[in-house]
């Protein structure tokens, strides 16, 4: 199973922001630069993560993006399911739909495999993702300050 690019960069943002208390708050542009993804793509991911309640934008001095408490404790399996949007791994109902789509054992097996994939991520929290050795590396990925 392959995650969408959108899910991957949203997870990168979450991981980078999970260590922001050690390295200082960051703007969306700085997160994009630190994780080496285009700003416009990162802005879309940040908006989606805010809607999910995982991130919040803090205003004022020392402000910037930060994880919410529930975001920090969120299950990675839940987060990936939300970001992926519940689609199947094969487009059985595409245009034109597959002629087997009403009675396909393979489709059922793929759904089970997809659920097993998510289930393997369920016990992990966002906090778990930034334990050593990942966390210290993330702290060093500081985006450039905007001009
Ligand atoms: S063969 Fe089965 S799994 Fe593949 S597209 Fe058709 S319905 Fe879906």
TrEMBL record:
Query: In Gene Ontology terms, what is one molecular function of this protein?
Result: DNA-binding transcription factor activity
Q: Which superkingdom does the taxonomy of this entry point to?
A: Bacteria
Q: Name one Pfam family in it.
A: Rrf2
Keyword DNA-binding listed? yes
- Which UniProt keywords are given for this protein, alphabetically ordered? DNA-binding
Q: Which cofactor(s) does the record list?
A: [2Fe-2S] cluster
Q: Does the keyword DNA-binding apply?
A: yes
Q: Which GO terms describe its cellular component?
A: cytosol
Signal sequence extent: none
Which InterPro entries did the record assign? Tscrpt_reg_Rrf2 (IPR000944), WH-like_DNA-bd_sf (IPR036388), WH_DNA-bd_sf (IPR036390)
Name the Gene3D superfamilies for this protein: Winged helix-like DNA-binding domain superfamily/Winged helix DNA-binding domain (1.10.10.10)
UniProt-recorded name of the protein: Rrf2 family transcriptional regulator
Origin organism of this chain? Answer: Streptomyces albus
What is the organism lineage in this UniProt record?
Answer: Bacteria, Bacillati, Actinomycetota, Actinomycetes, Kitasatosporales
């Amino acid at each position: 199973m392959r995650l969408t690019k959108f899910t991957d960069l949203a997870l990168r943002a979450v991981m980078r922001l999970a260590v922001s208390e050690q390295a200082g708050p960051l703007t969306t542009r700085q997160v994009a630069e630190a994780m080496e993804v285009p700003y416009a793509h990162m802005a879309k991911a940040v908006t989606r993560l805010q809607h999910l309640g995982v991130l919040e934008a803090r205003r004022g001095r020392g402000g910037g993006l930060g994880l919410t408490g529930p975001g920090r404790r969120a299950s990675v399996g839940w987060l990936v399911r939300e970001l992926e949007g519940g689609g199947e791994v094969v487009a059985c109902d595409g245009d034109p739909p597959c002629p087997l789509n009403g009675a396909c054992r393979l489709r059922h097996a793929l759904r089970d495999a997809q659920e097993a994939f998510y289930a393997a991520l369920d016990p992990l929290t966002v906090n778990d993702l930034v334990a050593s050795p990942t966390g210290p590396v993330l702290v060093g990925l500081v985006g450039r300050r905007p001009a």
